[in-house]
């Protein structure tokens, strides 16, 4: 089958001062010059900021098609074969004059003095005038601060006012702008000290340490996000198309992992037709990830606000994937669903997963329109879903039933309607009473356990591991898997202990992260170091990986003991429904028959030929639950829990949390 | 024949590049690291780096997301 192969970036051969080099198309000439080992003086250039071409010190001569011209190297993208000269007499003269002018204007600023030296300018009197500013910390109009405010923290507070010789850096109208979030990015990049930090709030032990590591993340966001996950552009919605492509996007109550209509709800459509704002999330102003998105002027079609135009915060990945899970590939619906869930105080994930379960039960004939108040709740029934939400908010009708969640619906339907309890258990995507979040875990034992063993119930917060085994085939053995399942939930818990955002841990990755072997790379070591330094900068106490995990383990074990006490903390509570570990219906088996048959032959060692789909499903079910239980055993052992998943007294002693109140909870669930 | 991530097998053809392997596998995730016979391949070389027959190709996906 012929496939369109994407062509990579073009390579261009150029020469720099006679040296032949190959560069990728659109590389800025200054970077090519530096990489080739030559130096050019610069003032306005900054490695983490988009070039501006303001100071003109980096002027370079190029020759293309026999024509010579002067360009500022910092913002000149290489697009054709050129010869470059960085040190001709013409350039040297130009540089010297420029440097003399800078020196005349700001004779005592250190960066200017250094530049003057490099450019051979010694006469500070030549261009002395009434404009000369003797301040050693004068502003030299490099615009680093303006660009950092824009691109590090997306704030746009700073700008220049005046023209020519009266040009100066300022906040709007020369007044203190209330939108300034005090992030100190501007001061950090200022080469002269013209911007001073007046106040270190919260008395951190070492503000400079925090600043250094915070700025490292800000800089990485501003330079690499557009090449990686485009969090600033589309937020977490970028995952919709990714998950669909990898067969992990939940469709029709997690039966399938992709759908031809996903293109109707992906981040491309959201960006083109819906998103109107790129803003920092409500967590804190000035967040450099700025993953929150909003839809302005959205006209509602249903409910108490019908006909009104509103602002909707979102949708994020989980909400959009809730749409595909309910078979509702319609962004108008998803945005309205998002709005009313927010307005009524309903969780979009729990609601969508419950509704997907309801829809499957409806299609399977377990409930009928008699039970739903006349609503035909098939997959894709957008209007009926919204009607149920409005009913729930009004406290009437079938909507109230849906609002109870999957666990109670399973009980209710098997008790009142005599429904097949085992089937409901197989397809009801909840563990510990909480509905699953929106990833298909069928092919990933790590994700199955990551979900079902999570303290809070099956959400991805503690461990999002679906790629690690299903795609990367890392951690192939049970022992290796148990190690991953021991590390990640504990590591991720640490963020919650400190109230830190997890997105900046793994949504922006240093380009050289691949220098680590895969099992280390997956931890993103540079970012872990940033977090450790935040802690040290705040408290004054150094933190290493061992200590970090220890802090978490104490809380993690305490949480498990509390779970146990509340009746949600034993092996039984860590068991996923069949839909989470394998095909629960013939339809699913058949849709991925090749995959399951192959596995049966190669992994289980049973020949699928001549067996009915039902028989094969039973074999897969037995095999996968057996494998799951082996994994659970290994994880419990690693965590120092007993066979039933309860932390042992010795473990609590070792962690130093064997206080009487905790030990009392170990006596068993509250009656 | 080449092996991808120690599990999938792909038919090899003369001049096959890393990019072709990624396309064939449907791997278009933004955060990946590729090695061919344990040799790291830079993203800008995907379209030109040729994969030899019998190569072990590893495409390592980093998880991201909330
Ligand atoms: S402190 Fe931050 S938000 Fe305020 S002006 Fe400086 S860069 Fe902008
Ligand atoms: S205040 Fe500092 S960073 Fe901003 S333009 Fe002036 S010298 Fe440059
Ligand atoms: S460094 Fe290129 S114009 Fe300033």
Task: Walk me through the structure.
The complex is a heterodimer of chains A (671) and B (66). Chain A has 671 residues and is α+β, with helices and mostly antiparallel strands. Chain A has four domains: 11-87, Ubiquitin-like (UB roll); 139-198, Alpha-Beta Plaits (2-Layer Sandwich), CATH 3.30.70; 231-435, Orthogonal Bundle (Aldehyde Ferredoxin Oxidoreductase Protein, subunit A, domain 2); 445-665, Aldehyde Ferredoxin Oxidoreductase Protein, subunit A, domain 3. Chain A has 29 helices and twelve strands. In chain A, strands 2-1-5-3-4 form a five-stranded mixed beta sheet, with helices on both faces. Chain A is elongated and about 95 Å long. The N and C termini of chain A lie far apart (64 Å). With 66 residues, chain B is an alpha+beta fold. Chain B has a single domain (2-61), classed as Ubiquitin-like (UB roll) (Roll). A five-stranded mixed beta sheet of chain B has the order 2-1-5-3-4, with helices on one face. One iron/sulfur cluster (SF4) binds at residues 148-149, 153, 155, 157-158, 180-186, 286 of chain A. One iron/sulfur cluster (SF4) binds next to helix 4 and helix 5 of chain A.
Helix-strand blueprint:
The complex is a heterodimer of chains A (671) and B (66).
Chain A: E1 11-16, E2 19-24, H1 29-35, E3 59-64, E4 67-72, E5 83-85, H2 89-105, H3 110-119, H4 144-151, E6 159-161, E7 168-170, H5 185-189, H6 207-224, H7 231-234, H8 239-245, H9 267-274, E8 277-279, E9 292-299, E10 309-313, H10 317-325, H11 331-344, H12 348-363, H13 382-394, H14 398-402, H15 406-416, H16 421-427, E11 430-431, E12 434-435, H17 445-452, H18 466-470, H19 478-498, H20 503-506, H21 518-521, H22 525-539, H23 545-565, H24 578-581, H25 586-591, H26 593-604, H27 613-639, H28 649-654, H29 660-665
Parallel strand pairs in A: 1-5
Antiparallel strand pairs in A: 1-2, 3-4, 3-5, 6-7, 8-9, 9-10, 11-12
Chain B: E1 2-4, E2 8-10, H1 18-25, E3 32-36, E4 39-41, E5 56-61
Parallel strand pairs in B: 1-5
Antiparallel strand pairs in B: 1-2, 3-4, 3-5
The complex binds iron/sulfur cluster (SF4) (2 copies) and FE2/S2 (inorganic) cluster.
FE2/S2 (inorganic) cluster (FES) binds at residues 42-45, 53-58, 72, 74 of chain A.
């Amino acid at each position: 089958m012929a496939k369109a192969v994407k062509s990579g970036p073009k390579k261009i051969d150029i020469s720099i001062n006679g040296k032949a080099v190959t560069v990728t198309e659109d590389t800025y000439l200054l970077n090519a010059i530096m990489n080739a080992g030559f130096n050019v003086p610069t003032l306005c250039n900054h490695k983490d900021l988009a070039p501006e071409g303001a100071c003109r010190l980096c002027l370079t001569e190029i020759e293309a098609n026999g024509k010579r011209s002067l360009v500022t190297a910092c913002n000149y993208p290489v697009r054709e074969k050129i010869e470059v000269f960085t040190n001709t007499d013409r350039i040297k003269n130009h540089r010297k004059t420029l440097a003399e002018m800078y020196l005349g204007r700001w004779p005592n600023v250190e960066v200017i003095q250094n530049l003057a030296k490099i450019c051979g300018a010694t006469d500070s009197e030549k261009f002395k005038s009434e404009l000369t500013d003797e301040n050693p910390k004068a502003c030299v109009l490099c615009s680093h601060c303006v660009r950092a405010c824009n691109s590090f923290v997306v704030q746009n507070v700073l700008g220049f006012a005046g023209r020519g010789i009266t040009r100066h850096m300022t906040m709007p109208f020369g007044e203190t702008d209330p939108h300034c979030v005090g992030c100190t990015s501007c001061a950090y990049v200022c080469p002269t000290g013209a911007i001073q930090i007046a106040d270190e709030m919260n008395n951190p032990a070492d503000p400079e340490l925090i600043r250094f590591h915070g700025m490292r993340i800000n800089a990485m966001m501003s330079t690499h996000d557009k090449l990686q996950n485009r969090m600033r552009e589309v937020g977490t919605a970028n995952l919709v198309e990714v998950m669909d492509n990898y067969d992990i996007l939940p469709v029709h109550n997690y039966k399938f992992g992709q759908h031809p209509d996903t293109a109707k709800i992906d981040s491309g459509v959201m960006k083109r037709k819906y998103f109107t704002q790129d803003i920092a999330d409500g967590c804190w102003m000035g967040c450099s990830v700025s993953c929150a998105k909003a839809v302005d002027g959205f006209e509602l079609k249903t409910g108490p606000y019908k006909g009104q135009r509103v602002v909707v915060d979102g949708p994020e990945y989980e909400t959009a994937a809730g749409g595909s899970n309910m078979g509702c590939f319609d962004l108008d619906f998803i945005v309205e669903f998002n709005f009313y869930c927010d307005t009524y105080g309903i969780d979009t994930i729990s609601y969508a997963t419950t509704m997907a379960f309801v829809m499957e039960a409806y299609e399977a004939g377990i409930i009928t329109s008699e039970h739903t108040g006349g609503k035909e709740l098939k997959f894709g029934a957008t209007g009926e879903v919204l009607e149920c939400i409005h009913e729930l908010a009004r406290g009437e009708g079938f909507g109230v039933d849906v609002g109870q969640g999957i666990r109670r619906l399973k009980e209710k339907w098997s008790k009142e309607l005599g429904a097949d309890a085992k089937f409901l258990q197989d397809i009801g995507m909840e563990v510990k009473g909480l509905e699953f979040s929106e990833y298909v875990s069928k092919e990933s034992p790590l994700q199955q356990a990551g979900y079902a063993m999570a303290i809070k119930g099956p959400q991805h917060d503690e461990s999002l591991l679906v790629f690690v085994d299903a795609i990367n085939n890392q951690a192939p053995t049970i022992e290796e898997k148990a190690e991953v399942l021991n590390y990640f939930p504990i590591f991720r818990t640490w963020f919650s202990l400190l109230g830190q955002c997890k997105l900046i841990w793994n949504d922006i990755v240093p380009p050289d992260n691949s220098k680590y072997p895969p099992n280390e790379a997956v931890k993103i070591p540079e970012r872990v170091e940033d977090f450790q330094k935040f802690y040290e900068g705040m408290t004054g106490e150094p933190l290493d990986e061992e200590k970090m995990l220890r802090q978490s383990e104490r809380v993690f074990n305490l949480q498990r003991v509390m779970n146990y006490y509340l009746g949600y903390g034993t092996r039984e509570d860590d068991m996923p429904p069949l839909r989470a570990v394998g095909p629960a219906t013939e339809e699913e088996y058949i849709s991925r028959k090749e995959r399951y048959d192959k596995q049966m032959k190669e992994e289980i060692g049973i020949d699928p030929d001549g067996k009915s789909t039902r028989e094969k499903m039973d074999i897969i079910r037995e095999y996968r639950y057996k494998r799951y239980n082996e994994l659970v055993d290994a994880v419990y052992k690693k965590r120092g829990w007993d066979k039933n998943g309860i932390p042992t007294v010795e473990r609590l002693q070792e962690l130093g949390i064997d206080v009487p109140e905790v030990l009392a909870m170990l006596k068993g669930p509250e009656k | 024949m080449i092996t991808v991530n120690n599990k999938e097998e792909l038919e090899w053809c003369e001049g096959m590049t890393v990019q072709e392997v990624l396309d064939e596998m449907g791997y278009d995730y933004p955060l990946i690291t590729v090695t061919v016979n344990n040799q790291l391949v830079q993203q800008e070389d995907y379209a030109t780096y040729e994969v030899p027959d019998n190569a072990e190709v590893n495409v390592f996906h980093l998880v991201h997301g909330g």
